[in-house]
Amino acid sequence: GRESLRGAMRVGVQYVAQSYHLKGVLLRIAIFFFHSTALMALLPLVALGMRGGDAGTFTILLASMGSGAIASTFALPRLRQAYSRDRLVMAGAATQAFSMAVMAITDNLWIGVAAMLMGGAAWLTTANSLSVSAQISLPDWVRARGMSMYQMAIMGATALGAAVWGQVATVSDVHTSLG
Question: Residue 17: which H helix or E strand, with range?
Fold first, then answer.
């Protein structure tokens, strides 16, 4: 019962603690979600700050990000053949950062739509590449436990990032926080 659950958790934590590769994947996904969450957390305020910004503006920007993510799934098989996972992660992180920088300085909805399309594609490509890296590095007997830690890294970094970047926006402004 409870004791076997504790033992299973302990084994999973020990495996992750000893796996250099998995610790690297967890660190990368945490860093990526910590910084990229700023855009999602502040998007309602970004939308309001655009010319004529309202709830409809927010909806268009959010739908653009989702559309970029969906569109990237069609390109992922070819991208995986052409580039290593590390290269995809680096390109995704750079594209996400560029998207956020554009959103930090534009008040034009259509420029924002283009940036959000790119950001959505980058978000999905990066998260998918790191997820594949985590799954491949985990043996079958510990895969579920390792992937639960992967999810914890995402959720923890997302929560922390939203709080930190929201606080940065509070003491400065939304554009500074995104930048």
Answer: helix 2-18
pLDDT digits (tens, 9 = 90+) for 39-59: 999 999 999 999 999 999 999
Instruction: Give tens-digit pLDDT for 54-100.
Output: 999 999 999 999 999 999 999 999 999 999 999 999 999 999 999 99
What are the two backbone dihedrals, phi and then psi, of residue 170, each rounded to the nearest 5 degrees?
-65, -45
Question: How far is it, in rounded angstroms, from Cα 160 to Cα 26?
Answer: 15
Question: Of 29, 30, 105, 159, which is closest to residue 167 (Cα–Cα)?
Answer: 159
Numbers of helices and strands, H then E, in the chain: 7, 0
Contacts of 32 (CB under 8 A, 6+ apart): 89, 92, 93, 96, 126, 127, 130, 157
